[in-house]
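Progress against Task 2.4 (sequence-to-structure conversion) is shown through the following example record, which the project officer requested during the mid-term review.
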Amino acid sequence: MKAFKFYIYRISLAVIFGLLPMTMWAGDKLTHYVGIANKKGDYNWNGTQKCHEYTYYYYVTKGQKGLVLTLPIAGYTNNGSDTEPRGYYRWYDWKTDAASSRLTKVGSLLNSFDKGKGLYAVCLPTNPSQNTVGVTYSAPSGAAYDSWEADTIACDVSRYHDGITVVNGTNFSHEPTLSIRYKFVIRKASWIADKLRNSVVDSRTGTRTFEDNQDVTIGINSTDNRKSEANLRLNYNNVKRYYFYPLTTQAFNNKHIYYQPGKQAENKFEESDFSKTLTQATAVKWRVYDETNSYYCEIDCEIIDGKSQPRFVRISPYKLNNTSWTHITTGSTVNPGSSQLPTFKAMSRRSDRVLLTASFVRRKCSV
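Structure tokens generated for the chain above:
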């Protein structure tokens, strides 16, 4: 015996062909579609439709519950926006192309596909948001977490509803042409903490940190005001997505990412300088080294609308020329304007080079 399920929604006049509000029935059997722009039979390795993809990375502790997988759409954590797609949303495990037991439905418009093919919403009568199409993720616990490596959760999104016929109800023939796919790669918190520590311990010329952007050239027009500056940032959009192993007090006070030749013994980080306590980042310390690796200074993160934004920092010749610097070897402070310090210029025949690092506080670990 086969049971048939029907789900009833109210559709606003902006959604379906400009008609008056009407009742629709959404089918729940998923049939993949190659998409309007792809070649016939040209699917991904797991049988899903090919489309533009964007990947985000999250890290979880053992047994962590309720991790919100945030879709990058306007107003997602509030009431959404009418500029965002309303055609189709589907959450599933990317590796299996099926439902994930680690996802919990939050969105009121989400339903389950037949045969365990994930959660979906179609022809939304209201704006997409966490409350309408959102989910949360829960990490494995106990021994399952210890042997677990990663999950990849996908969310297919479309502005269209081709393959979904709305005539006195809904005939779900196949998924629509997809606009974009968001992937969320979720790993153990210790994975990124290990990466942060190992990149510093194994540092070499060129690559010394986890998010090492090497040489970045910035054009600066003037040094006499605050207008000529560059805004730099960490990769992840929330510093709490970083976990790290704090440094010992001795290493925190005396060791550095950059140092002069011959100073490796006293300045280079070793694995023994890090504790084994896994810690979630809450703040960032931005530090600048001069080109000779003799001095460093610390600059504040950006303030937006009166709120600290630790992910961002503004750097400029003006700021570097008007701050105190610390000598790496002696620890002595050198005030702005001292002849001991380099002068950072602009619009000259030469260029100035500084080395910028971001460290997580609660005993730093550089990114």
